[in-house]
Amino acid sequence: MNLKNRIAALVLVACAVSSPAHCPAGDWAQFLGPHRNGMSSETGLVETFPKTGPKIEWRTELGVGMSGLAVSRGKLVTLFQDERQYAVALDAATGKELWKTPLGPAYENAMGNGPRATPTIHDGSVYVFTGEGNLAALALDSGLLKWSIDTPAELFSKPAEYGMASSPLVVGELVVVQVGSHRGTVAAFERETGKQKWAVGTCQAGYSSPILATLAGRSQIVAFAGDRVLGINPDDGAELWHFLYETDYNCNTASPVVLDDSTVLISSGENHGSAALRIAADGDKFSVMEAWTSFGKDSVLRAEWQTPILLDGHLYGMDNIGSAGTITNLVCVDAATGKQLWMEPRFGKSNLICADSKLFISTMRGELIVVKATTEGFQETGRTVVTGMTRQAPALAEGLLYMRDDREVVCVNVQAKAE
């Protein structure tokens, strides 16, 4: 089966990849949604907005932070800070605060203050990772702190230069994050106790969040670290394979994207580019081969901190140009070949998710833009201003789209019948 056919087949089994247990339909319970790939199965959503703007269900004031939004069982959870870092739960329907739990002192950084990682909601618990690297478990119903681990102290490391940004990944009875220590680049902790189970790798952390994937017939954690991508056995933390991928300042930030049953995409901004890596297995030994690569100033895709979306064998993503990423294009790329199909130049720094064959894009200017997910060129159908400056991808649950900035969380009704 060729790569393009394998990509098409993957669409039919996407729900089997990286799907958390006990996650009700319509939830967005972790970073980039149900399958950690920015995709939602929801339909019947708006294509455009009325002149008066979309229906805003509620706005709730919070505070500073780059943490995204997790929604499950009627609750929305995110991280923010004022004088301290907090986890907070809001009623997803009304925006009413249900609980707020302090996690540690305020986190300050030249690249922006506040916590970075998105919470993960799983089986009645919330797993959070603070800016300086404290991993904690809270009760979803009450916010009660179950346990907290200072992961840099646990593994004798220093927090990443721009803050710890790895959104926790739940795999079975474990919760997994990037730590970035010579004693473990990636580490797993028991969900119920916080006890360290394993650690693997010796390189610094990147700013990417790990995913769970099935590649070459083996379930594995794929983690994009500071100078390489790792394939890891979730049972014991054994390294299955790695591929060196050095970028300035260890700025590997977008999550890996599974292209088919043996191929995974990694991409970085700062004028770096993308590589589609084909993983092969020979018994217990794994090998890595480049299916296609596109690097440098002519790269088709340089994802800075926005994870590309895979739909029907095509990648939709933000292509950042220049060492400071000052120009961002929106592009569509054939995932099998790496050929760029179209580009909307100077679209602007943004983040994106996909549902109902549409891209829902949140820009750093606080806009919500609807673009058709099609290979037939850029087709914008709706644009409206929702928030102030935002770096987070939207969250989508039960026809409600959630965005946040450094002041508030906003709930937008994106059901077509709400127009």
Topology:
Elements: H1 3-12, E1 39-40, E2 55-61, E3 70-72, E4 75-81, E5 84-91, E6 97-105, E7 120-122, E8 125-129, E9 134-139, E10 145-150, H2 151-154, E11 169-171, E12 174-181, E13 184-190, E14 196-200, E15 211-215, E16 218-224, E17 228-232, E18 239-244, E19 257-258, E20 263-268, E21 273-282, E22 285-295, E23 309-311, E24 314-321, E25 327-334, E26 340-344, E27 350-355, E28 358-363, E29 367-372, E30 380-385, E31 395-397, E32 400-404, E33 408-413
Task: Describe the 3D structure.
With 419 residues, the protein is mainly beta. It has helices spanning 3-12, 151-154, and strands at residues 39-40, 55-61, 70-72, 75-81, 84-91, 97-105, 120-122, 125-129, 134-139, 145-150, 169-171, 174-181, 184-190, 196-200, 211-215, 218-224, 228-232, 239-244, 257-258, 263-268, 273-282, 285-295, 309-311, 314-321, 327-334, 340-344, 350-355, 358-363, 367-372, 380-385, 395-397, 400-404, 408-413. A five-stranded mixed β-sheet has the order 1-27-28-29-30, with no helix packed on it. The chain has a four-stranded antiparallel β-sheet with strand order 2-33-32-31, with no helix packed on it. It is globular. It starts with a helix and ends in a 6-residue tail after the last strand.
Strand-pairing-aware structural class: mainly beta
Extended strand count: 33
State the helix count.
2
- What is the percentage of strand-forming residues? over 45%
Low-confidence stretches: 1-23
Strand order of the largest sheet: 1-27-28-29-30
Helical residue percent band: under 10%
What's the main sheet like? 5 strands, mixed
- In one word, what is the shape? globular
Give the distance, in angstroms, between the N- and C-terminal Cα atoms: 44 Å
Please compute the radius of gyration using only Cα atoms.
20 Å
